[in-house]
Every structure is written in structure tokens, then in C-alpha cells.
Specification:
The chain is built from 13 helices and eight strands. It is α/β, with parallel strands linked by helices. The chain has two domains: about 20-185, NAD(P)-binding Rossmann-like Domain (Rossmann fold, 3-Layer(aba) Sandwich); about 190-320, N-(1-d-carboxylethyl)-l-norvaline Dehydrogenase, domain 2. It has an eight-stranded mixed sheet, with helices on both faces.
């Protein structure tokens, strides 16, 4: 994730407060317009909001997604913070804290204070650290977690929110997204995202581990035959879902690590999702990981995906050693 450029605008003598914008939500900034972010921005734009972003240092793919989502692009983070009534962070978990720090620095530099909704797949512990960063700069941190697919593909994701300022986002409910306010406590929105993804993405990782092991033992066809007989629903889900996993695997490694930290924080073993992170790391080492969510080969079979994945298993194990 890039370090965003600043325009070196001097702080205003009287900092513009969060409360002054609380009832005037017109311009929404989204960092960044990736697969989910551009979909959320697109539906909010369609519902009349001015959706903006800063693309300094971002890829051509991100720029293309911003354009297709109807975003208005500003040159610097300073400009974005000054124009936005709400900033939403929707990006890979590993970049979440860095972006929060960049936005906090910008609020200090400009003296313009804004509500900042982190909607990333992070643990409650990480959310509380970001709360300290944003609130320490004078902003208002909102804890968020997104469950469901991107509106760009016709889905209506649920954005769970929590924190003292979470009510600001209630007005976005029904505008291409569903907003579910879990109350004033930071950590509740990120916590429900962690629990939910521990099952969905965790199950995907377990399925890849099972199939890759069977392939390595020379038992793939026999296992698939048994699954076809006794677990047809699960097999169908694997056939439709697993070939697309490598395109997302790189950004899900950090999510599994955040889930492991969430579990560990309450005394539940973190090892399930530490292992899931390893499986996504394996998928991310394959040539299929060069695909983006827009360019996944929809004709690639489950068998081909697992065969190639198993070929990269020794390489991954050697690099871990």
C-alpha cells in the first residue's frame, strides 16, 4: 500500500469537527476501489452520494475499477480528507493500519477532522489499535466489517458497524448495502466478521488442504468418487469455488492471521487459521494467483487447480524451512 502524498496545506485555525458533518453526509471517500470497495462506491454513487478516492501509487487495475465505479478521483490524501464527510477504508487487512495512520497524519496536518470507518477483515485487537490512532488525531473511529459479495456482482453486502459514532452510517442502509449497527462498543463489528469468515474462508482452506493431500497420496480420483457418492453438495461447492481461490489467496493470508489473533485473544486455539493462512499462502504461490477477480479462468477444473497446487507444495515447504 502506498504512502499517500500530502499537499502540505496548513492546519485550519479552528479544526472542523466530526459533529459539524454528522448530519451532512454527502461526500464519501473510499480507500480503496478494489473488488469490494469499487462495488460499494458504485451503489453509493448510484444513490446520489459523491464518492471520491485518492489513487496515488495505485495500479492501473485499481484506477480502472474506480472509473467503472463512478468515483471522482482527487490528487492527494489531503484533498480527499478535506472534501469527505465520511472516509471508508476497504482494502486488504495487512494495509489497514498503515492507511489509518496515513489518514490520521493527514487530519493532523490539515486540522480537518473526519469520521473514519475501517471496514476491513481485522481482529478486535487491531480495531482498537486503529481507534487509538484515529481518535488520537481528533477523528472519530468507526469499527466495521463486511460480510457478503461485492455489489459490482449484484450482491448486497452487510456492513456491520459498532462504536460511539457508528450511527453516522445508518443512513446508508438500503442504498445498495445493508448496514447493521451493533452498538457503541469498538470490536463488535470486527469480531462478527472474524467469526463468520473463520467458517467460510476457513472451510475453503480446509477443503484445499484435503484435496491437495489426496492428490499427493495418489488418491484424488478415489476421494472425489466418494465425495460424489456421499457429499455431493460439498463437492459441487468445491468444483465451483476452489478454482477461483488463488486470485484472492494473497489478501486472505492476512485475514486468516487476524482470525487466529481473534481466537487467541479469547483463549481459543489460533492454530486452525494459522494453518488456513498456510493454505492460502500455498495457493498464492501458484501461477493461478496472477489472475484478478475479474480475470479468473472460469473453465479451469477443480482437478487442474489441485494438481497444480500440489506441484507447488514442496516449493512452499522448502521456503518455510
Amino acid at each position: 500500500m502506498p504512502v499517500y502524498a500530502h499537499s502540505h496545506i496548513m492546519p485550519e485555525q479552528n479544526a472542523e469537527s466530526y459533529e459539524e458533518n454528522r448530519m451532512n453526509l454527502k461526500t464519501i471517500a473510499i480507500l480503496s476501489p478494489g473488488d469490494m470497495g469499487h462495488g460499494v462506491g458504485k451503489v453509493l454513487s448510484e444513490h446520489g452520494y459523491d464518492v471520491i478516492t485518492c489513487l496515488a501509487g495505485r495500479s492501473q487495475r485499481t484506477r480502472d475499477l474506480a472509473v467503472s465505479g463512478g468515483f471522482r478521483i482527487v490528487e492527494t490524501l489531503d484533498e480527499m480528507v478535506q472534501e469527505a464527510d465520511l472516509i471508508m477504508s476497504i482494502l486488504v487487512p495487512s494495509a489497514a493500519e498503515g492507511v489509518a495512520e496515513d489518514v490520521a497524519d493527514t487530519m493532523r496536518t490539515t486540522g480537518v477532522l473526519r469520521p473514519f470507518a475501517d471496514c476491513n477483515a481485522v481482529s478486535p485487537q487491531t480495531a482498537r489499535r486503529m481507534e487509538s490512532v484515529i481518535n488520537g488525531a481528533g477523528g472519530e473511529y468507526i469499527d466495521g466489517g463486511i460480510i457478503g459479495g461485492s455489489p459490482a456482482r449484484g450482491a448486497t453486502p452487510r456492513i456491520y458497524t459498532s462504536g460511539p459514532g457508528a450511527g453516522l452510517m445508518d443512513e446508508l442502509d438500503g442504498k445498495g448495502i445493508a448496514v447493521r449497527n451493533l452498538g457503541p462498543e469498538i470490536g463488535r463489528a470486527s469480531g462478527i466478521k472474524m467469526c463468520y469468515a473463520s467458517m467460510t474462508k476457513g472451510t475453503s482452506a480446509l477443503r484445499v488442504a484435503m484435496l491437495t493431500t489426496a492428490q499427493s497420496l495418489g488418491l484424488y480420483d478415489e476421494l472425489v468418487a466418494e465425495l460424489s457418492f456421499s457429499q455431493q453438495g460439498a463437492l459441487s461447492a468445491m468444483e465451483s469455488g476452489v478454482p477461483g481461490l488463488p486470485a484472492n489467496a494473497g489478501r486472505w493470508i492476512g485475514e486468516m492471521e487476524e482470525i487466529a489473533a481473534t481466537f487467541d485473544g479469547v483463549g481459543v486455539t489460533p492454530h486452525f487459521h494459522q494453518g488456513a493462512a498456510e493454505m492460502f499462502r500455498l495457493l498464492a504461490s501458484t501461477p493461478f494467483a496472477d489472475e484478478s477477480p475479474e480475470t479468473i479462468d472460469r473453465d479451469r477444473s477443480l482437478g487442474e487447480t489441485i494438481r497444480v497446487t500440489s506441484e507447488y507444495l514442496p516449493t512452499l515447504m522448502q521456503s518455510a524451512d
